[in-house]
Design goal:
MscS_beta-dom_sf; 10 strands; 3-stranded antiparallel sheet; membrane; 4 domains; transmembrane helix; alpha+beta; cell membrane; 5-stranded antiparallel sheet
C-alpha cells in the first residue's frame, strides 16, 4: 500500500519536528560518509598490495599494526582471505545499491506516468449527475409501468396491461444494465489505477537507501516530492471510487426491483395463458367490483402507450429508416412506370389491371408497410395500429371510383369499426364503462357482418375471399359479445379485436398481393430486352391469376397478426422460437437454425436484388424508345459490376449475420485456391475476363458487334459468359475469355455509324461532270446520310466496258446502312435513265475473219 508515502506526507504536515529530524538524518549521513571514505582508502591499499606481491603486502600490514608475536606465514594468508571476502561483500553491496537506484528511477518515472494517466482519466471521467438523472427517470417510468399491474390492480389483471408493463420494464432493465456496465467498467479502471500505484509504491527496492549522505538527502527530497504529488491523486481516486461504487450499488438494487417486477408479471401472464377461458369479472348485470375512475384509466393507458412507442422507436430507428427508404424507392419506381405508360398511351381510364399505377405514393405505402410489418418483432400495439391505419387510408383512396359504391361503403364501415375497436384495445385496465362499450362494438360487427353476408352483392366483388373473412368476423364478434356478457373480459377483448382485424388484414393482404401481381405484369409489358426467364416466372400468366403460394403466405401472415392478440400466443410460439434459436455444434463450429436461415435469406435477397438490377436497369423500357436512341442501354456493362458488388456485400453481410468464423472462410478460400490450381483455370479465366470487360468496357450491352465474322447485338454480359443475339435470330453464348481474346469489332463505340461505298460503271460517252452532279444531289437529299463528313464521288479507273465511279458516304445509324444502299441504287438507276447516262453491262465484240472470201 501507499503507507510509506502517506507517512512522509504526514511528517511534512508537522513543521515543528522537521528541523530535528533533518539534523539527525544529516549526522547519520555524515558518519556514513566518513565510513565510506575509510573503506575507499582500504580498497586502494589492497590493490597496491596485490600488485607488489604477497610479501610486500604482509610487511606493510605488519608495520601498520602493533607488534604481535606471530611468525607464521599461514596467519598472513588467512588475513588476506578475510580481507578479500570483505572487499567482495562491499563490491556486491555497491552493485546492489546502484541497481536499487536504477530501479528507483524507473519506479518514480512509472509512478509519474500513472499519476498523469489517472489525473487525465479523472478529468474526463464519467458524469455521475447524468446517471442520477437517468436513475430518477427509470424510477418515474417504473411507477408508470407498475400502475395497474403491481399497484392499483383492480379486480383482475388484463392481457394488454401486462404486455405493455412487461415491455416497458424490460426496456428499463436494459437501460439500467447498460448504465450499470458503464459505471462498473469505470470503477474497474479506477481500481486498476490504485492497484498500479500501490504496487509501484510497495516495491522493496524503492526503500533501499544509498551509501553516501549526499545521495540519501537527494533521495529523501525526491521521495517527498513524489509523495506530495501522489497525495491529491490518491485522494481523488479513493473519493471517485467510493462515489461510483455507491452508484453501482444503487443501480444493482434498482435492477433487482425491476427483475422482481418482471418475474411477477411473468407469473400473471402464465396464469392468464393457462386460464384463457376463466372468469375475470362478474356478469355484466352483476356487481361492479373494484374499478378505478375511468379518467385515471385513460391517463394510465396514454402514459404507457407513449412509453412503449417511444422505447420501440428508439430501439428500431434503423428498421424504421429502412421502411421509409423502401417506401421512397417503391414510389419512385411505380411513378416512373406510370410515366412510361402515360407517354406511350397505355394507361386506361378505369385503371382495370393497372390500379397499382393510379396513385404511386399510396400504392407504395400499402405494399411496403403491409410486408414490412412482419420485420418488426413484437411491436407495441399502438405502432401496429398506426401501420394499419395508414394502409387502410391508402386502400380507401385507391378504391375511390374503382369499386362499386356498395362495397366501398362496406369497406369504409369496416375500417371505422376497426379503428374504434383498436382505440378501445389501447385502454389497458378494465372498467364497467369499457365493458359496455365493447358490447356495443361487438353488436355493430354482428349486425354489419350479417347484413353483408346475407344481402351483399357478391357478383360485384373482385376478391371472393372477402365474404369468408366477413363471415368469420361475424362469428368472432358474437363470441366476444357472449364472453363479455359472462365476465370473460380478456377473452372477449381478444376476440373483439381479432374479429375486426381479421377482415381488415384479409382485405389489405388480398389487395397487396393483387397490386404486386399487377406490378410484375405491367413491368413485364414494358421491360422487354432482358430474358423473361430471369426470375423463373411465367409472366404471361402474371396478372391474370394469382399464384397459390401468395395465398399461403397471406394466410400465414394473417394468422400471425391475429394470434398476437391472444394471451397464449407467446407461450405457443416460444418452443418454436427456442427450436430455431438453440445453439447446435458440429465439430468446433456452433450454429443455430435461425442463423443458417438468416444466412440463406440474405444470400437469396442479394441474388434477387442483383437480378432485379439486371432485369430493369439494362432495359430501355419500350421498343419505341430503343429506336430513338439506337438501342443503347443505359447502364450497360456497369450492371455486371453492380451485381458483383451486391452479391459481395450480401455475402459478407450474411457471414457477419450468421457469425461464421473468419478462420473457416480462410480454409474454404485455401481449398478453393487448390481447386483453381488443379482444374478451374478456365472458369477463373472467364470470371476474371468478365471483370475486365466490365471495367475496361470494350463492349457494352446493346452494342452491335462482329466477332470472328459473326455479327449481332450484345444481349447480356454475365459472370462467366456473354450472350450475342445474332442477325439470324439465334443467341450465341460465348465465354468471356474467348470474347476478350477474339478479334472483336464494335460498331457502337464510334456512335453506330458506318461508311458505305457503292461502285458504278458509266459509259465512256457519258457526261462525267453531270453524272457527278446527279450523284451529289441524290446523296444530299437523303437525311439518313451524314453531311459531316460529307459524301463524295470518286472516279476510279477506265474499265473494260465503262468508267468506274465509287460513291462514299456515312450512314447515321448502322442499322440503316443496308436500306440506304438499296434505296440509292434504285434512285441512281432512275435518275441516270432520265438524264441519258448509260450504265453499260460488260460486253465483248468478236470479229470473224475469212481469208478465202478475201482472196475472191
Amino acid at each position: 500500500m501507499l503507507y510509506s508515502f502517506r507517512l512522509l506526507i504526514d511528517i511534512q504536515a508537522k513543521p515543528a519536528i522537521e528541523p530535528a529530524t533533518w539534523q539527525c538524518r544529516i549526522k547519520v549521513a555524515t558518519s556514513l560518509q566518513n565510513y565510506m571514505n575509510f573503506t575507499l582508502h582500504v580498497r586502494l591499499i589492497c590493490i597496491l598490495c596485490l600488485l607488489c606481491g604477497t610479501t610486500a603486502i604482509a610487511q606493510q600490514v605488519d608495520s601498520a599494526r602493533p607488534a604481535v608475536p606471530d611468525t607464521s606465514h599461514g596467519g598472513t594468508i588467512v588475513r588476506m582471505q578475510a580481507l578479500a571476502k570483505k572487499m567482495a561483500k562491499e563490491s556486491t553491496d555497491d552493485f546492489a545499491t546502484d541497481k536499487a537506484a536504477a530501479v528507483q528511477t524507473r519506479l518514480f518515472a512509472e509512478m509519474q506516468k500513472t499519476m498523469q494517466k489517472a489525473g487525465a482519466y479523472l478529468k474526463h471521467g464519467i458524469d455521475t449527475s447524468d446517471a442520477i438523472r437517468q436513475l430518477a427517470a427509470i424510477d418515474r417510468n417504473f411507477i408508470i409501468a407498475s400502475d395497474g399491474v403491481l399497484v392499483n390492480k383492480g379486480s383482475a389483471q388484463t392481457f394488454r396491461n401486462l404486455t405493455a408493463s412487461s415491455k416497458i420494464i424490460t426496456e428499463l432493465l436494459s437501460k439500467s444494465n447498460v448504465l450499470k456496465n458503464k459505471f462498473a467498467a469505470y470503477h474497474a479502471d479506477l481500481t486498476t489505477f490504485r492497484y498500479q500505484l500501490d504496487s509501484l509504491a510497495d516495491d522493496p527496492q524503492l526503500f533501499k537507501l544509498p551509501n553516501d549522505s549526499a545521495s540519501i538527502v537527494k533521495y529523501f527530497k525526491h521521495i517527498v516530492v513524489v509523495a506530495h504529488q501522489l497525495r491529491p491523486v490518491d485522494r481523488s481516486l479513493r473519493l471517485a471510487s467510493d462515489n461510483v461504487q455507491n452508484i453501482v450499488d444503487s443501480i444493482s438494487m434498482n435492477n433487482l426491483k425491476l427483475q422482481t417486477a418482471l418475474e411477477e408479471i411473468a407469473v400473471y401472464q402464465k396464469q392468464m395463458a393457462v386460464h384463457t377461458f376463466a372468469r375475470d369479472f362478474d356478469d355484466i348485470w352483476g356487481p361492479r367490483g373494484s374499478y378505478r375512475p375511468f379518467d385515471e384509466i385513460l391517463a394510465q393507458a396514454k402514459a404507457k402507450g407513449g412509453l412503449t412507442l417511444l422505447f420501440y422507436v428508439q430501439n428500431n430507428a434503423g428498421l424504421l429508416t429502412l421502411l421509409v427508404l423502401l417506401i421512397i424507392a417503391s414510389f419512385v419506381y411505380i411513378r416512373s412506370l406510370k410515366i412510361i405508360y402515360i407517354q406511350n398511351q397505355l394507361l386506361t381510364d378505369d385503371f382495370e389491371g393497372q390500379l397499382v399505377l393510379r396513385y404511386p405514393l399510396f400504392s407504395a405505402l400499402l405494399i411496403i408497410i403491409s410486408l414490412m410489418q412482419f420485420a418488426f418483432w413484437s411491436p407495441p400495439f399502438i405502432l401496429s395500429v398506426i401501420f394499419w391505419t395508414i394502409c387502410c387510408i391508402s386502400l380507401i383512396i385507391l378504391f375511390k371510383k374503382f369499386i362499386t359504391r356498395y362495397w366501398m361503403n362496406v369497406w369504409v364501415i369496416m375500417v371505422m369499426l376497426f379503428l374504434i375497436a383498436t382505440t378501445d384495445n389501447l385502454i389497458l385496465q378494465a372498467s364497467r364503462i369499457e365493458r359496455w362499450l365493447m358490447m356495443a362494438i361487438a353488436i355493430a360487427g354482428i349486425i354489419t357482418g350479417t347484413v353483408v353476408v346475407w344481402k351483399g352483392k357478391r357478383n360485384e366483388l373482385r376478391e371472393k375471399w372477402i365474404v369468408i373473412s366477413i363471415g368469420l368476423m361475424t362469428f368472432t364478434e358474437l363470441a366476444a359479445f357472449t364472453a363479455n356478457l359472462f365476465g370473460r373480459y380478456n377473452l372477449s377483448k381478444s376476440l373483439m379485436i381479432a374479429g375486426y382485424l381479421n377482415v381488415v388484414v384479409a382485405i389489405l393482404f388480398l389487395w397487396v398481393v393483387r397490386l404486386i401481381n399487377e406490378g410484375l405484369f405491367l413491368a413485364f409489358n414494358v421491360y422487354t430486352r432482358q430474358d423473361k426467364r430471369l426470375f423463373y416466372i411465367n409472366f404471361d400468366k402474371v396478372g391474370k391469376k394469382i399464384h397459390p403460394v401468395f395465398y399461403i403466405l397471406l394466410v400465414v401472415g394473417w394468422g400471425v397478426l391475429i394470434g398476437r392478440n391472444f394471451a397464449g400466443f407467446e407461450y405457443l410460439a416460444k418452443p418454436l422460437s427456442e427450436f430455431f434459436n438453440i445453439d447446435r455444434t458440429i465439430g468446433d463450429y456452433t450454429f443455430s437454425i435461425n442463423k443458417l436461415l438468416l444466412f440463406i435469406s440474405i444470400m437469396i435477397a442479394s441474388v434477387i436484388i442483383s437480378k432485379i438490377v439486371s432485369f430493369f436497369a439494362s432495359d430501355n423500357h419500350l421498343s419505341a424508345d430503343k429506336d430513338k436512341d439506337g438501342g443503347k442501354a443505359g447502364l450497360g456493362s456497369w450492371v455486371l459490376l453492380i451485381r458483383i458488388t451486391i452479391l459481395t456485400l450480401g455475402l459478407f453481410l450474411a457471414i457477419a449475420a450468421a457469425g461464421i468464423p473468419l478462420d473457416r472462410i480462410t480454409i474454404v478460400l485455401g481449398a478453393l485456391g487448390v481447386g483453381i490450381g488443379f482444374g478451374l483455370q478456365t472458369l477463373v479465366n472467364n470470371l476474371v475476363s468478365g471483370l475486365i470487360i466490365a471495367f475496361e468496357k470494350p463492349v457494352n450491352v446493346g452494342d452491335i458487334v462482329d466477332v470472328d465474322g459473326q455479327g449481332g447485338t450484345m444481349k447480356s454480359i454475365g459472370f462467366r459468359s456473354s450472350v450475342i443475339a445474332t442477325w439470324d435470330g439465334a443467341d450465341l453464348v460465348m465465354p468471356n475469355g474467348d470474347l476478350l481474346n477474339s478479334h472483336l469489332v464494335n460498331w457502337s463505340l464510334a456512335g453506330n455509324r458506318k461508311r458505305v461505298s457503292i461502285t458504278i460503271g458509266i459509259a465512256y460517252h457519258s457526261d462525267l461532270n453531270k453524272a457527278r452532279e446527279l450523284l451529289t444531289e441524290i446523296l444530299g437529299n437523303d437525311d439518313r446520310i451524314m453531311k459531316i463528313p460529307a459524301p463524295f464521288v470518286q472516279y476510279e479507273q477506265f474499265g473494260s466496258s465503262a468508267i468506274d465511279v465509287k460513291i462514299f458516304f456515312w450512314a447515321r445509324q448502322l442499322k440503316d446502312a443496308g436500306a440506304i444502299k438499296s434505296d440509292l441504287i434504285v434512285s441512281i438507276n432512275v435518275l441516270f435513265n432520265a438524264n441519258g447516262i448509260a450504265i453499260p453491262f460488260p460486253q465483248q465484240d468478236i470479229y470473224l475473219h475469212n481469208p478465202g472470201e478475201t482472196d475472191q
